[in-house]
Amino acid sequence: MHAETLVNSVLGALLLILLSAVQGSLQQSLRQVGGECKISPESSLRRCRTPDGLICSGRGECECGICICQVTEPGTFYGPRCECHDWICPTYDGKTCGDHGICKCGKCFCDENWFGESCQYQEECSLSSKTSKDLCRNAQGVVCSNAGTCHCGSCMCHNPDGKGLISGRYCECDDSECLDEDSGDVCGGHGKCYCGNCYCSAGWHGDKCEFQCDISPWESKRRCTSPDGKICSNRGTCVCGECTCYDVDPSGDWGDIHGETCECDERSCHAMYDRYSDDFCSGRGQCNCGRCDCKEGWAGKKCDHPLSCSLSMEASQKKCQGTSSLLCFGRGQCLCGQCTCHPPGDKRVHGKNCECDDRQCEDLNREICGGNTHKHRQQDKISINGGASRKTLASWTDCTTHHSVD
Asked: Where this protein primarily resides, as one coarse class (predicted)?
């Protein structure tokens, strides 16, 4: 095995030297003394084009029918059409060729006593059967995810069709999820599949790279950037230069969040005490991109201040706040310094500033304090149990003056 690997390595090196020499002689023969190319631009590009239509595999420039690879590191891209690059070799456990071989133009040449596409299997195993199986168990304790067999601590995934769709350290990856239902191609032929997820080539998007985008990633990002410099205002996702907002009505109509860059949030027009109401701007105005345009006679961020009120908006709000930073403790509507607790007619929310919310004392049967709402019963209960919450007692006594007691 070692001798075969050595021979393959030597042959590979000789082949690359020969290709380089042929490239050099070809380039000289195709150029005249003045440095001009003997062949037409069309013929030059045809010689540099790969079977998939790319010039120099998209990794170099074509000069007179010869590919000049864009090499940033020695050995990164090479070959007649820049088709070889070391990092495309199979990996195992995150390591190229399993760290037990060398990569040559997309193929692993394994070290002695190792084999497999990623050099992940040992020919001679010194591990016990138990140790070997333990090394093959996934996070759930299943050997090779029930999709392969264990060989010397490494999983050999079952791929009877030869397509290699089952992969991963524990055979946990099923790349059949990347197959396009119509064409049967992996990621529609426009991307790479890694553990069941498609990573699309530039200009393509979608779960299986089925949609083409004719603009660059930079242009897409520019179109999705909101005036405050955020992608889709941090309220959506950018796909091919268009924002898909997180809150869209299933019918396709606008949801609470909309706009070209999801810059409009209509939830800002809802009152704090009734976030789920269909009424925007307290029913007294029009919500435009998160701002209330109030009807005549009304003012305020939520159109909740009547201009006929003798109090200023600031004075009215101050009276409604009480000891809270929220108007009416966030449980009611403030009108001219007076709180109307929400929902109207529900006596569980009460107090001058709606500071009492007896709903917090309800049990599963919607009974307040288990039905023991009288003060003396509450005190008896605390005396008997000895361990009742002081907070519950304090809440009850603070708001008890607003209840009628027998």
From this structure: membrane
